[in-house]
Amino acid sequence: GAVVSQHPSRVICKSGTSVKIECRSLDFQATTMFWYRQFPKQSLMLMATSNEGSKATYEQGVEKDKFLINHASLTLSTLTVTSAHPEDSSFYICSADMTGGITDTQYFGPGTRLTVL
Amino acid sequence: DAKTTQPNSMESNEEEPVHLPCNHSTISGTDYIHWYRQLPSQGPEYVIHGLTSNVNNRMASLAIAEDRKSSTLILHRATLRDAAVYYCILSGTYKYIFGTGTRLKVLA
């Protein structure tokens, strides 16, 4: 149980284009989902917290107009990287916090490798 | 800043037990201690979590100090597939702050 999927697993795009990444909780409902970014040889950095039906909360230094987050249902959150540039190339990982859970355990997706040319 | 500190790397021989330490001296009473591991190019995998008492599951054991200021993840018999970066994380304010983790190398 507690499976989170991401789609696509990897994407290559041209500079200036937008890319959408989907995060789904497959067997549980998630009121809250999180988006992380991980550069090579580094740890995960939280980008934003996504709450179903409301606006996302972004961490300091993360541009909300560049990284659009939508959490339209209890099982789906999307991250759109707008006008992507090579410096946005990274490994993007989402996680989901099970609705009603009391231990704040997050379940992570497999990640999406974004390469911007 | 991460609320936990871990050694950067550790080595273990295959089939031997591994004890991965984590210090969290500023833990609050409502913080759970979570452990995850991450293989290259994959998302973190949940390993175990606990609050005050020691915990066991099919993957590992978690030993929590009486004052809760430190914990130890125990892999009873390390295999090559256990080679990964292990993260110790406190929850309680709903969001995770990842430290650098411990890179575990398992020697055949």
Give the proportion of residues in helices of chain B.
under 10%
Query: Whole-number radius of gyration of chain B?
Result: 13 Å
Please, what is the average pLDDT of chain B? Answer: 93
Proportion of beta-strand residues of chain B: 35-45%
The low-confidence parts of chain B are none
User: Largest chain-chain contact?
Assistant: A-B, 25 and 22 residues
Largest sheet strand order of chain B: 1-9-8-3-4
Q: State the secondary-structure class of chain A.
A: mainly beta
Uncertain residue segments of chain A: none
Largest sheet of chain A: 7 strands, mixed
Work out the number of β strands of chain B: 9
The secondary-structure element order of chain B is EEEEEEEEE
Terminal Cα separation of chain B, in Å? 35 Å
Mean pLDDT over the full residue set of chain A: 93
Q: Could you characterize the architecture of this molecule?
A:
The complex is a heterodimer of chains A (117) and B (108). Chain A is an all-beta fold. Chain A has no helices and eleven strands. Chain A has strands at 4-7, 10-13, 19-25, 32-38, 45-51, 57-58, 67-73, 76-81, 90-97, 106-108, 112-116. In chain A, strands 2, 4, 5, 6, 9, 10 and 11 form a seven-stranded mixed β-sheet that branches. In chain A, strands 1-3-8-7 form a four-stranded antiparallel β-sheet, with no helix packed on it. In chain A, strand 7 (67-73) and strand 8 form a beta hairpin. The mean pLDDT of chain A is 93. By secondary structure, chain B is mainly beta. Chain B has no helices and nine strands. Chain B has strands spanning 9-13, 18-23, 33-38, 45-50, 55-56, 61-64, 70-75, 84-90, 102-107. The interface between A and B is medium-sized, with 25 and 22 residues.
